Amino acid sequence: MDVAKVNHDGALIFEQPFVKVPYEQLRRHFKAGQKQIERDFTILQKESADAAKSKPEPEQARKVLDGMVTRVEGLKRKLEEIQSNNTVPAHTAMRRRLNHLSAFEALSTTDQPGYADWAEIRLDRWLVDWTLRNGKEATAKSIAKSRNIEVREPPSKFPPGRDPT
Predict the structure, then answer these.
(1) Are 35 and 103 in contact (CB under 8 A)?
(2) Nearest-CA neighbor of 159 among 93, 70, 90, 81?
(3) Which of 15, 23, 32, 45 has its CA 20 to 30 A from that of 98?
(4) What DSSP assignment string belongs to 69-112?
(5) What's the rounded mean pLDDT across residues 72-91?
(6) What is the mean pLDDT of the chain?
(7) What is the pTM of this model?
(8) Which of 144, 132, 28, 151 is closest to 89 using CA atoms?
């Protein structure tokens, strides 16, 4: 059997999309959280400015402040949902994929122990990706489960809790 030197640069070109997907998911969720914060803070600033101008009675001021506190608590809940439902799984996927690549960086030839395992996982990831792109979700989940690699559900077009189905 011929021993070949591992082409790290060529392999990284093929692996780039597997790292880019969770990165893009993280970026998208960060922007969604940022927009939510900006929207709610704009409303809070407007409410506080209106309350300061009108010099309300103590009872009315308490109601305005209670409304502002409720809005901040709602913002906190929304951001926690984004964190737990989207950001943590994307971080986990990215970490696993980068660990997979770092294991590859340690290999210099194809006859080293670990290269065959790395190549099998790489092939399985490609198969899972291909099956997902072609609508074969059950097959993708089966391959991923048998090889212990992650499969993320396709993102919903609707915000959490607002899916009409």
Answers:
(1) no
(2) 81
(3) 32
(4) HHHHHHHHHHHHHHIIIIIHHHHHHHHHHHHHHHHHHT--BTTS
(5) 84
(6) 82
(7) 0.62
(8) 151
Convert the pLDDT of each residue in 14-34 to its tens digit. 888 878 888 888 898 889 889
CB atoms inside a 10 Å sphere around CB 16? 11
Residue whose token pair is 């103590």: 58
Q: Decide if 143 contacts 124 (C-beta within 8 A).
A: yes
Distance between first and last Cα of the chain: 56
pLDDT (tens digit per residue) in 131-152: 888 899 899 889 888 888 865 5
CB-CB contact of 103 with 118 (8 Å) = yes
* Stated length of the chain: 165
Tokens 């992650």 appear where?
Answer: 150
Q: In whole angstroms, what separates CA 42 from the centre of its chain?
A: 27
* DSSP 8-state class, residue 160: T
